[in-house]
Amino acid sequence: MPGSRNTSGSAGAAFLAAALLAGTQAPADDNAAWLEQDGTSNSAEVLQQSGSRNEAGRDDRPMQQSGAGNRLYIEQGGGNGNLVASVLQDSINSDHGNKASVTMTGKRNELNILSQVTQGSDAAGRNTAELVIEGDKSNTSAFTAGLNDFALDAGAEAGTIRQGAFDGGPDHGNTLDLRVEGSRTVFGVEQIGTGNIAKPLTITGDDNEFGLVQDGDRNKVVAGITGNGNILGVRQLGFENTAEIFVEDNDNTFGVLQNGAGNLVSLNIDGNNNGQADGTGDPDAIFAGAALDAAEASSPFERGMVKQIGNSNSVTHRVTGWNNAFGFLQDGSDNEIVGLQDGHTNQAAVVQIGSDNATDFTQIGAFNIVGVVQ
Q: Rounded to an integer, what distance in angstroms lies between the CA atom of residue 227 and that of residue 286?
């Protein structure tokens, strides 16, 4: 089993660790690598570019870098059934962040946990994670039941990718770049702190499930879905958060929850049967007359929902296509919703609870329905 341990933190030892781990690039199956580095400015590279059932890290022996300014690169490809079991980068009271880059190609690959943790009251480091996943059925066994109880709630709990100050410190400014190309994959992301960015989150393929939670202020997510039958859930807890969702193609389900003040959601939908239109969200098999009286005036319909709990919220909504169905719930004051539906048989239910709310909708096409309750 190739592996490496470096506790000196020196550059020479770091390069030695990288050289040892590079030995895992042999064209064979069932290779395994682990790493332990303790110090600053270390760098390690794991190349498992051929074969199947290779492993990088284990639950009891992770790929671990403790310190600041460390870099870890993992690449697995050329086969199927590879595993990145456990990656941990942690630092205490550091001004410098860590970076992890993972690339996995092939089918039925698994990424169990990638965690970047910053601790301490004086911490200011910004961590970066870059992931490229290419292939079908990746990460499906990392969740006992997938995210099919709607990714909105399940994503953070699954926690495949975690960034933040999990001891309540002032950690801020972590970034995540996640690109998934394939079908029937499952991923969850959790970012804790202020000023975190999940951009871009790109899903290309069919029947993928993805959940994201950002817990803190001034966080931002930009997510794009291209394909059919995908499920996306975004939950932002805090103030002045922003979510931009782009969906292209058909039968996609997604929802956004923002709990705090001064938040913004922007939806851009180009396709058919998106939102609640797949018939699984109820109420009453997805709306009718005045969008079923604004979805029965604030029932907790989740699929296709945008919920904003707090003050001064705003939603910008655009739909191009047919038979899409969405619900909007704003519980607070000074809220604004602006929408456009371009196509036929689209529906929207708008519920605004509070004062000084405004709704502005434009419909182009036939058989569109909008219901508003204020």
A: 22
